[in-house]
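S.,

As promised, the magnesium ion run. Input:
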Amino acid sequence: MADVPDNAPEHCPGTQSEKAGKSTACQGCPNQTLCASGATKAPDPAIAEIGVKLSTVKHKILVLSGKGGVGKSTFSAHLAHALASDINKEVAVLDIDICGPSIPRIMGLEGEQVHQSGSGWSPVYVEDNLAVMSIGFLLSSPDDAVIWRGPKKNGMIKQFLRDVDWGQLDYLIVDTPPGTSDEHLSIVQYLSATHIDGAVIITTPQEVSLQDVRKEIRFCQKVKLPIIGVVENMSGFVCPKCKNTSQIFPATSGGAERMCSDLNLPLLGKIPLDPRIGRSCDEGRSFFNEVPDSPATKAYHSIVQKHMCMCTKHTHTDTHTHEYTG
Amino acid sequence: MEQNNEDNLAQVQHVVLVLSGKGGVGKSTITTELALALRHAGKKVGILDIDLCGPSIPRMLSVGRPDVHQCDLGWVPVYTDAEKSLALMSIGFLLDDPDDAVVWRGPKKTALIGQFVSDVAWGELDVLLVDTPPGTSDEHLAVLENLKKHKVDGAILVTTPQAVSTGDVRREITFCKKTGLRILGIVENMSGFACPHCSECTNIFSKGGGEDLAKLTGSVFLGSVPLDPLLSASIEEGKDFIQSFPHSPTFSAITSISHTLLNSLQAA
Ligand SMILES: Nc1ncnc2c1ncn2[C@@H]1O[C@H](COP(=O)(O)OP(=O)(O)OP(=O)(O)O)[C@@H](O)[C@H]1O
Ligand SMILES: Nc1ncnc2c1ncn2[C@@H]1O[C@H](COP(=O)(O)OP(=O)(O)OP(=O)(O)O)[C@@H](O)[C@H]1O
Ligand SMILES: [Mg+2]
Ligand SMILES: [Mg+2]
Ligand SMILES: [Zn+2]
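Predicted complex:
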């Protein structure tokens, strides 16, 4: 997998790329001979290290969408809050949106910094049983831009998995940027020596969003990542004054419902547009505590319930197969 | 492609990037509407869509998925109209199956964007708008690097009013400063929603954040576009909103932004 040494030139194709040691950027790089020899293209030893490191994590869930701004980060944060409301569960969120990390703000951790401990980086804690890691904790100011090409982003993701002191976890939730590129390939490859429960796909009801989400589903199929289900977010808005519903993002092609039935995927639920969700995100508070009895909170809880069922079902079949077939 | 296409951008007067650190804030929608507004103002416009994993422009202008043809100068862009006043190039035109995922790492994306910049025979254009994916990574660096030989007028930054969005756009502003890209102004999109049943205004994604960001960073504020279901419906169906709803506040907002943009391009 693509990786870039610290002393590499700006356009380094990555030590594991086909072009390693051979591209024009490699001219004059101290690693050129090594890269050209092919030695760096062997499977990254980090994959096995990560496998060992994360063997204490029971469930790993990716939150994905081909489309931007559909609510991946909001969902990741609130799924984590919901799971962590059981104080016997250890939950963590890993934000691999390297250029646009939203998790620190949404989880009320802006300005926090990561600490170095004996066994690696320590994550930042929202609660005793809710840990978070994001590149946002490594930036010194809110104006800092992370202007990195793919290989450097991949290197960061590798560090997040291998060098963070995650400890024993029941759930690791990974929030991703939109698209099907470096971050997505890297997380799947770096986790390939572990078991990923699957991906939750987030979409909004319009075709402009669904057309990108279908690509993400293809991506999951290509890399053999199971899909736990699809969540339709921002579906309909109930006017607080007259109580009429407006379809601000209209489901012109049948919405997530049609897509799920066409592609034979479970629809986990629909979450309405609610200005209080946006406000809680901006203020870094859990929406569940702010408005516990709203339709959006109920929708979220029902999705989380279904989701947990699928995850536990998975563990059961995993652990019982040997007994029944053995 | 090995043609002599050094000059494919020679007759393009102005190049403007549409950027945002945040996803889904309406970069593609604003690009589309500005292109339509500029065209209605009699300009020849091009859109280069460099969102390779999630191209939206072909659908937003309902051009379908025509084949892209070659000419001596390179790729012929797709035109939305017989007068050829609005030209497009997008990876959407190059895929056999619209649901296919473009699972590419940076270097491959960089290579295609290089081709998009040098090998599209745009001909004469008043303005070329570049629609981008969110972030500050391969696509953004690639397009700027390839446009170095030509003059880039600057960037329009799109944000929603929410802090979650303006926070990411602050980082994008740093990107512009570091890469020497002029900021033409900030657009606040999805600003306030007027209920079509009772006209009560709800700020679903908050309000005023884009304007505050402009003040904070000393950037020009180009205006706010309301959250308008007629706009999202037009975008879904690929209809020309500018033509269909000339009396709506959204129309006034978009046309005023396009006027300010044109003035600042011509003044420069
Ligand atoms: N159901 C909802 N109702 C109202 N606002 C919402 C809802 N879901 C999300 N939001 C708001 O919409 C915006 C986009 O959400 P979010 O940042 O979670 O999306 P994302 O998919 O992670 O975006 P990106 O692609 O940039 O990572 C945020 O400002 C969030 O507060
Ligand atoms: N002012 C508006 N009123 C109503 N709907 C809007 C408005 N602006 C954008 N939308 C809708 O919001 C959705 C997201 O917009 P769009 O695709 O333009 O965002 P983007 O920033 O290009 O997203 P991405 O980061 O995925 O490229 C689209 O369905 C679009 O129709
Ligand atoms: Mg996000
Ligand atoms: Mg877009
Ligand atoms: Zn109303």
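The pocket of magnesium ion (ligand 4) is lined by residues B 27-28, 51, 56, 131 (CB under 6 Å). Chain B has one domain: 2-267.

- D.
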